[in-house]
Amino acid sequence: MSLEEIATGIRSMQIRGAAEIARRAAEGLKQAAQSYEGRDLQEMRAFMEAGKELLLASRPTAVSLWNGVQAVFKGTAMVGSVEELRTRITRNADDFIVRSKGAVGTIGRFGSRRIRPGDRVLTHCNSKAALSIIIQAHKDGKRPEVYATESRPWRQGLLTVRDLSEAGINSTLIVDSAARWLMKDIDIVIVGADTICSNGALINKIGTAQIALAAHEARVPFLVAAETFKFSPKTMYGELVEIEERDSSEVVKPGEVPEGTRILNPVFDATPAEYIDAIVTEVGVVPPSAAYEIIVKELGQDYIFERN
Ligand code: RI2
């Protein structure tokens, strides 16, 4: 797929899921570098930069895309030829893709240890990281009883019950507004992440914050599954996370509401750190207050010094 096609796929949500978006972007940049035919290093740099900006403009909220692209371009400022740039981008992209896939498995193993036999688990949207914990718990013989929200308007919950079924887990689907009603019968909530801010706040699919609130009220543990490339260096310097708003046609069909009715379609919301019990990453299960440390240790300091 060309970079244009990947950017269109991400924008239209044909390519979705914060980690998958980052991997596809990295793969696209690798293909672009591989297929570059020019001989001039500066021209190739300009070509790759244009590709990078195209991808970064496709969806604003999930920092995984930004971190993935940074990982692909790491150290490229030092290269001295087209071939070196091609090699560096290829190696960085392959390394990022392999590490990101490995991270999901590790998160699954760490997180499964937080699930007790027979636990009733609630999850929201379709997060491969959150599912890896639930599926690993199943493989570990813990027989989790799983509930998934529908997650309107894109109904990713249908993908979740399908993924669970393919893993041999029968689950229960609920409408989003039933989360608080159900919470009295839930032992643990596990969701994914699009962005973890430096203050430990979670940006995830719209509806996550009200589930976290209901869990907090019911004293039900709220776990976040997030690879370290879901943590945002940008928030460390005051940058706010842009919450994507998408077209109203995703919420209602034409003619379903009277002329003049305003429709809001925010795609993500923010869950404060105090509602989060732990974040399961590939480098360990950490409190939200460890977000700063994770950013500095795992994502490096390139961006930090650049911003000072
Ligand atoms: P993984 C998804 O966003 C959901 O918000 C999910 O929780 C998050 O990405 C992380 O997903 P969207 O792409 O990376 O459906 O864990 O808007 O798969």
Question: What would you say this structure looks like, in words?
Answer:
This protein has 308 residues and is an alpha/beta fold. It is 44% helix and 12% strand. The protein has eleven helices and ten strands. It has helices at residues 3-11, 18-34, 41-56, 63-73, 82-112, 128-139, 157-166, 179-182, 208-217, 291-299, 302-307; strands at 120-123, 145-149, 171-174, 188-191, 195-196, 202-205, 222-225, 268-271, 278-281, 284-286. The strands form two sheets. A seven-stranded mixed sheet has the order 3-2-1-4-7-9-10, sandwiched between helices. Helix 1 runs antiparallel to helix 2 (18-34), helix 1 (3-11) runs parallel beside helix 3 and helix 4 (63-73) packs across helix 5 (82-112). The chain is globular and about 65 Å long. The structure holds 1,5-di-O-phosphono-alpha-D-ribofuranose. The site of 1,5-di-O-phosphono-alpha-D-ribofuranose (RI2) has 16 residues, from helix 2, helix 6 and strand 6.
